[in-house]
Amino acid sequence: KMPSIFTRIVNGEIPAAKVYEDAQTLAFLDVSPASRGHTLVICKEELPTLLDLSPDLLAAVARTVQLVARAISAALSPDGLNIVQNNGAAAGQVVPHYHVHIIPRWEGDRAIAHWRPGAGAPDELRDLAAAISARMGEEDAV
Ligand code: 5GP
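Above: inputs. Below: predicted complex with guanosine-5'-monophosphate.
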């Protein structure tokens, strides 16, 4: 299997504007930023989506996301921050190597679009919650 573009960054084979690195995670600026300071946090291990990470690795990524978000807030003083994470092509994932977007926001910047609010009938929501809830705790449920 060909290494992902992010694995090639981890291995130093292609350059990136690095912000932070530890044993399990790496943060670097997005090459096509949605806003000033748009940063990606990845796990170094090449795993495709959220569903593939161990709880410990997920926690390591979350810790790095918060550390970098605080540093971005201190350095750039944005009005807000979006944390966005796409899983699967249908969800807009282009690079199949788990990553979290940190997107600094300024009032009125329209940097990313919000989803369209839909309608959920109360009994439909109750049935859906029951169907999901019934599958909680299954280690390999995908
Ligand atoms: P996705 O749509 O998979 O959630 O996001 C992939 C992101 O990776 C995009 O925002 C894209 O701009 C960024 N990206 C793709 N290739 C590279 C690269 O070679 N270097 C950097 N720094 N970012 C990249």
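The first strand starts at residue 18 and ends at 21.
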